[in-house]
Amino acid sequence: MDLIKVLIVDDSSVIRNIIKEALSHSDAIEVVGEAEDPLVARELIKKLNPDVLTLDVEMPKMDGITFLTNLMRLRPMPVIMLSTLTTKGADITLQALELGALDFIAKPTVQELIATRSSFKEVLIEKVMQAVTVDQKNFKLSDTLATKKVSTERTNILSFTGIKRSNHLVAVGASTGGTEAIKKLLETLPSNSPAIVITQHIPKTFSYRFAQRLNENCQVTVHEASHGQKIKEGHVYIAPGDKHLEVVHKNGALFCTLSDGPEVNRHKPAVDVLFDSLNDIADNVQAVLLTGMGQDGAHGMLRLKELGARTIIQDKSSSLIWGMPGRAHAISAHTAQMPLMSISKAILQYASLKRIEMQDVLEQSDIEGAL
């Protein structure tokens, strides 16, 4: 098996050395070059033909977003961002993911990197190994961004006649590729959609800015969830990046609760924690697993299915990483699988139907997922 060729792009020689040292612990990875700025990186890409790029977007001579835009247009490839844990870093990283970057890893200070070298090494190696499994067609600039035009057309918002059952809830879990998948899921939903709770694997600073950016572009109202917040129709609640999100049923209403417990499946927030909190109301829940690395959410989804929930997984062809939905598929935790762009419509159809009509929707969804 050929080694995975990695090019490191970072203006800090110390950070480049730390990344190189971390990747040296994998026998499957070879660091073929280092670049201190995008201009050097451009030449090394032509010369070395790397499989994966690690990229710090805040660099001299050419900003990383401009470089990434050009790269995704001319030579699409898997890019893992190294992102500072700041509001500015969050905005740049979210923009980079929109442009086609595969994933990101938090970039603490040099002192913090040295102190947490072992965990940083494990996560970085895992992300690089996963990067080369992604289909090359996924790395492309959207038409709007490629032409640098701002679309004047409104997103086609789905129509929705209303929810037939009170406290009907949609719970979504995602990881790698999830920020863009969630955006596409939400931006077609009307303002009277069923309430949605979301756990996306993302750092704290990023979750707040992610919720803000979605709220600016969606008909539904998007929040970073807060403790004790009442869950309402037409609203979306995203787990903070440093807390588990759970749902409690009290006095006929649903509320968000946040907990600072240990990581589950190596994550906090964890999708399994969210899904497991819904067991008591499972027959009024739609659980959705989108693109993501690992297996978080699969077993929680199976438990919900067994308790009567409708469970949907994103299909392999539309997933950036078919890890989490793939694991759910392997253990038959899903009642339906479908392309990403079909999920929002399926959610609304199911929520608007009376219970006697639901089985027809389930059967149709399974047919669609099998095609």
The tally of beta strands, per DSSP, is: 14
What portion of residues belong to β-strands? 15-25%
Please work out how many helical segments DSSP would assign: 14
The percent range for helix content is 25-40%
The profile of the biggest β sheet is:
7 strands, parallel
Shape: elongated
Question: The CATH topology of the largest domain is what?
Answer: Rossmann fold
Structural class: alpha/beta
Q: Give the mean pLDDT.
A: 88
CATH architecture tag of the largest domain: 3-Layer(aba) Sandwich
Query: How far do the termini sit from each other?
Result: 33 Å
Low-confidence residue ranges: 141-153, 354-363, 367-371
Order of strands across the biggest sheet? Answer: 8-9-7-6-12-13-14
Q: What is the number of domains?
A: 2
Broad CATH class of the largest domain? Alpha Beta
H and E string:
EHEHEHEHEHHHEHEHEEEEHEHEHEHH
User: Could you name the CATH homologous superfamily of the largest domain?
Assistant: Methylesterase CheB, C-terminal domain
> Gyration radius, to the nearest Å?
21 Å
Question: Which helices and strands appear, and what pairs or packs with what?
Answer:
Blueprint lengths: L3 E6 L3 H11 L5 E7 L2 H11 L3 E5 L7 H11 L4 E5 L3 H13 L3 E4 L3 H6 L1 H15 L11 H4 L22 E6 L3 H9 L8 E6 L3 H14 L3 E4 L10 E4 L5 E7 L2 E7 L11 H6 L8 E5 L8 H9 L3 E5 L9 H7 L5 E3 L1 H13 L5 H13 L1
Parallel strand pairs: 1-2, 1-3, 3-4, 4-5, 6-7, 6-12, 7-9, 8-9, 12-13, 13-14
Antiparallel strand pairs: 10-11
Helix pairs in contact: 1-6, 3-4, 4-9, 8-13, 11-12
